[in-house]
Each structure stands twice: as C-alpha cells, then as structure tokens.
C-alpha cells in the first residue's frame, strides 16, 4: 500500500461525506481548543449544543479567562467530566498571562496547558495551525487497529506507539488537519464499534480486518474489572423556602460543584445512620432523618452510584463547612442557578418538580 493512495481515498471520501460541525473552518484557534476539550470522552452530537452556548457566553480566550469559575461550571453542567471545565478555564488564563493571549501553535507549548495531552495537542496543532501531526483518540485508534489488524490493545503504550507511527506514515504533507478530521468522521459514520458499514468504507482495499472478515476482532481489548457500585446518602435540609447546599473542594471529582450534603455508606450502617454520621462529620450538626425524597442512580467512568436522598431536620448545631469549600442556604426557586453534577440536579428536580436537563 502506498500512503498517498490511502490518504487520497480517505480525503476524497471526506469531501463528499464529511460532517458539518460548527467549529470546522473557523479561523479562530480558540474555537478548536474549546471543541477538543469538550470532545474528550464525549460524543460530538452531545458536544454541539454545549459548544454553541459556550461560544456565545465566552466568545474569546480573554472572555473565558476573566469569567468566574461558577459561570464556567454552570455553562459546562450536564456535559460531565468537570475537570475538563476547570482545565479549559485554567488554560485560558495561562494563555493570557504567559502567551500574551495568543494560543501557542507548537506541540511543546500546547502540552503545557492544563488538561492537554498528546492527543489534544496534536489535534489543536493540526486543525488550528496546519501542523503535520497525527491525532489519535479512541475512535481513530479503532479505525487503524482494523486497518492493520493490530494484535495489541491500542490503549496500551506499545499499541498506541505502533498506531501513531503508522498514522504518521500516512499523513499527506500540509493536510494533516483534514486527514485527522476525515478519520474522525469515518470512525463516527462508517467504522462503527459494532456493525461497521464496510460497504460504505473507502478503505476496504487497505483494511486487513475487512479482507480477513475479522472486523469484530478489532480493536483487541483487555478485559476490564467489573465497575463497583457505591451506595451514598444525601440530606435535604430546609430553612424556610431555602435548602442547604455545600460546594465540593476544587480538586477532585466534580470539583467546585454544588451538592446536597451527605456521603458514602459504610459497612453495617443503615441509610439513616450513614446520613446522620456524614452530616455530623461534614457540617458539625446533629439531624433527625425524615422521609425519603427519592433514589437516584448515575454512572461515572469507573464506578456507579446509587444515592438515597432524605428530608432532614437539624436537631442541634449550626452548619459549618468542615469537608467542603463553603455552604449556602439557597431558595428553592434559585437552585437552577447553581452548577451541580447530574445526580444532584436530579434531586433538585425532584424538589422543584422540574426535570433535570438532559
């Protein structure tokens, strides 16, 4: 196979079938940067409405850099993996202070930005600045693992190196951005994880998996350990028409987001006992546990949560944020103004009678 034949076939397909995405063709590298942060571990179809709203609210790096974290997290709410929002916000501030507000174009400087690894640096360098860089995320690795019938899990360092070297050998000089985007679209429209549409693929002449009728065998995957399920409790504490929210520490899961206070059930505890202990440890208060508000479920990348929320009444003490950054008594009608993770938004929806956003 000649690399030029591979890239020509792919790029001809891309001209006819490539997706129309709002950040494509933008002369603003910031638009590419935002799209790449949002697309980490998230489907493009999900990203698009968030991207459009984000660019209206924070149209420039400077606008994002000067925005308060609360506004950034609220704009990101529902997109998940909130460390990306923190990192993008910090990256904007780094660019403003260290690069005079101009997004760097070289890989070394791009990798210095918070949350930017090899893939995101290569994607931004190729898409925004035309650099000859191969950008391989999980979807692109799937395509090339099938093309090469890679006998390794492409997520391993060795598998990643082999596919990156292979992709670099295919890059058409000066058109790496189009090449990367073409592979992205091929992975989304044709070379699907299950039931790939090989009859529509421009690369069947080069694809070993297709030629050997082994599409389902690639990419090779190392079996993952079962995902654990954690049981947690949360308390709905009221003061007049307000409920108590606490703000999670900036570092860690859902950093900076607001939540209903509570925590993980320990072995041997009943759910009410768990909640009494957690609120004592987190807020220095004693509570009585009332009726159950609801049971809420959510899956994160490495674990699942089943949360039991209860109405609670303070018996003694004044709430203090011992395990959180701060706390606020928030009028129920203002809960939508506070950035929350999915599961706490579901609790808020139960309280207010409004469905949580998709």
UniProtKB/TrEMBL annotation:
It comes from the Bacteria. Its EC number is 3.2.2.31. Residues 228-351 form the Nudix hydrolase domain. InterPro entries: A/G_AdeGlyc_MutY, DNA_glycosylase, Endonuclease-III-like_CS2, Endonuclease3_FeS-loop_motif, Endouclease-III_FeS-bd_BS, HhH-GPD_domain, HhH_base_excis_C, MIG/MutY. Belongs to the Nth/MutY family. PANTHER family: ADENINE DNA GLYCOSYLASE. This is Adenine DNA glycosylase.
């Amino acid at each position: 196979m000649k690399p030029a034949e591979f890239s020509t076939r792919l790029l001809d397909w891309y001209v006819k079938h490539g997706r129309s995405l709002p950040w494509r063709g933008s002369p603003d590298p910031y638009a590419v940067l935002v799209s790449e942060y949002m697309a980490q571990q998230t489907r493009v179809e999900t990203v698009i409405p968030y991207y459009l709203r984000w660019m209206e609210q924070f149209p420039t790096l400077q606008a994002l850099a000067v925005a308060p974290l609360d506004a950034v997290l609220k704009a990101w709410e529902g997109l998940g993996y909130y460390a990306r929002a923190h990192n993008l916000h910090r990256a904007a501030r780094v660019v403003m202070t260290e690069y005079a507000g101009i997004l760097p174009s070289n890989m070394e400087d791009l990798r210095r930005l918070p949350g930017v690894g090899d893939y995101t640096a290569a994607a931004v360098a190729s898409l925004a600045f035309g650099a000859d860089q191969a950008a391989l995320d999980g979807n692109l690795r799937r395509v090339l693992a099938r093309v090469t019938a890679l006998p390794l899990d492409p997520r391993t360092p060795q598998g990643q190196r082999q596919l990156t070297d292979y992709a670099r050998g295919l890059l058409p000089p000066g058109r790496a951005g189009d090449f990367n985007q073409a592979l992205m679209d091929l992975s989304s429209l044709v070379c699907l994880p299950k039931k790939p549409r090989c009859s529509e693929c421009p690369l069947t002449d080069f694809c070993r998996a297709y030629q050997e009728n082994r599409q389902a065998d690639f990419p090779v995957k190392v079996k993952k350990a079962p995902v654990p399920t954690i049981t947690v409790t949360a308390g709905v504490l009221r003061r007049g028409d307000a409920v108590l929210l606490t703000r999670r520490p900036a570092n860690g899961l859902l950093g900076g987001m607001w939540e209903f206070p509570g925590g993980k059930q320990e072995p041997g505890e009943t759910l009410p006992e768990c909640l009494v202990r957690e609120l004592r440890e987190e807020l220095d208060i004693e509570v009585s546990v009332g009726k159950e508000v609801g049971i809420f479920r959510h899956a994160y990348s490495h674990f699942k949560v089943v949360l039991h929320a209860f109405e609670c009444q303070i018996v003694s003490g004044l709430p203090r944020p011992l395990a959180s950054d701060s706390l606020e008594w928030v009028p129920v009608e203002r809960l939508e103004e506070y950035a929350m993770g999915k599961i706490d938004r579901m609790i808020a929806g139960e309280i207010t009678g409004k469905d949580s956003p998709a």
